[in-house]
Amino acid sequence: MTTDVTNVQNAFQMLIRIAVRAPLMMICSMVMCFLINRSLSLIFLGGLCFLAVIVAVITRLTTRIFRRVFDQYDGLNASVQENVTAIRVVKAYVREKYENKKFGKAAELLYRLSVKAEGILALNNPAMMLVVYACIIAVSWFGAHYIVLGTMSTGDITSLFSYIMSVMMSLMMLSMIFVMITMSTASVRRISEVLREQPELHDPDSPVKEVADGSIDFDHVTFAYRQGKGEETLTDLDLHIRSGETIGVIGGTGCGKSSLVNLISRLYDVSSGSVRVGGRDVREYDMEALREQVSVVLQKNVLFSGTILDNLRWGNPGATEEECREACRAACADEFIEKFPEGYHTWIERGGTNVSGGQKQRLCIARALLKKPKVLILDDSTSAVDTATDAKIRSALRTVIPGTTKIIIAQRISSVQDADRILVLEGGRINGFDTHENLLKTNVIYRDIYESQTRGGGDFDMPA
């Protein structure tokens, strides 16, 4: 996209300098040529028509190729970004040669397409010179004939050539514009595709600006991702959570845990049914107001370049340093922050590459706590911390935000067993929803998970 914007910018800069001057000079010169001798001017006019056909053909051919060139640029940039992001995996699997070869093939294809496009575009100048000089020769031949007949003077033919040179200079300037426009046409189309994209989610005409409480209700909710195969991720969920409850969510990979909580903050809209927060359908809320009160710590935690305090204040820009420290104590992040020489002013590299996975998770939990939300969602957000720290965080959450509804998604039974109720998902459906003790007695899947983890001490994937 950067290349596309640069192409359009360069074309526009050239247009505003030349687009008015060159056509105006060419039109005025052609008018003067017609006033001097209409017959000779028709020669040049015919040449211009022939040139227009050539330009149209070149434009048609090169625009298609340039579109492929810019698409290939995207692929090349994606390959570089992927290799940089996954450099540890590449090195761990000793795949440097493979990635170099893959990049080389992409670069070679880009080179061939670029050469092909530029080769066709290079025909523009020879074609223009051919037409211009052919017209000059024709005008010279017939002009000499008119001079011999006495219908034109030598001064007229000299003036005619002066105006013809002005036309030629105009054409040269227009050819430069033509080259830039041809390159930018494909870029304009690609940019337009992005700008024409409409958001799938919209605020209602008269949105609700305040979330009353943290109660959550799923009324016969069915959900499927639009970009997928249309298969239902969640099917006929009927779920009611009281404000201030702590709810554990457990289930195998792909059972819809993350999809479930994404509907609460309205990152997606349901396919059917309704999701209510604070007694109102989430589609009735102003999305910004809703998300201010629904704080989510995602599976893939993200930190931004800046100090630890800068990152914490993403949750609350007006938070004092003491409030940040309190949030970090609740998230057990103060333990490692205070070991840094610069403490809370320690610089976090882009993507949080200079802190561990567990440290990153705890900072993100602290950031979410600073929002003081009515609903807090932890989407497998303590997977990288040890069980003792996990227990401390859960204990602190009960103390620090007792009135906040807490939804904890986890793979470990120990992370959710002290929740008020636990939701067991299987294949996008509710398999069980009760306390830890009752589920052990009545729910086969939950009991199997519990026994496998207490016996093996590990995480789980849904048993067959």
From TrEMBL:
Transmembrane residue ranges: 18-37, 43-62, 130-148, 160-181
GO molecular function: ABC-type oligopeptide transporter activity; ATP binding; ATP hydrolysis activity
Cellular location(s): Cell membrane
Keyword terms of this UniProt record: ATP-binding, Cell membrane, Membrane, Nucleotide-binding, Transmembrane, Transmembrane helix, Transport
The ABC transporter domain, residue ranges: 216-452
Pfam family, one: ABC_tran
Superkingdom per UniProt: Bacteria
Domain ABC transmembrane type-1: 1-183
UniProt GO cellular component terms: plasma membrane
UniProt name for this protein: ABC transporter ATP-binding protein
Species for this entry: Candidatus Scatomonas pullistercoris
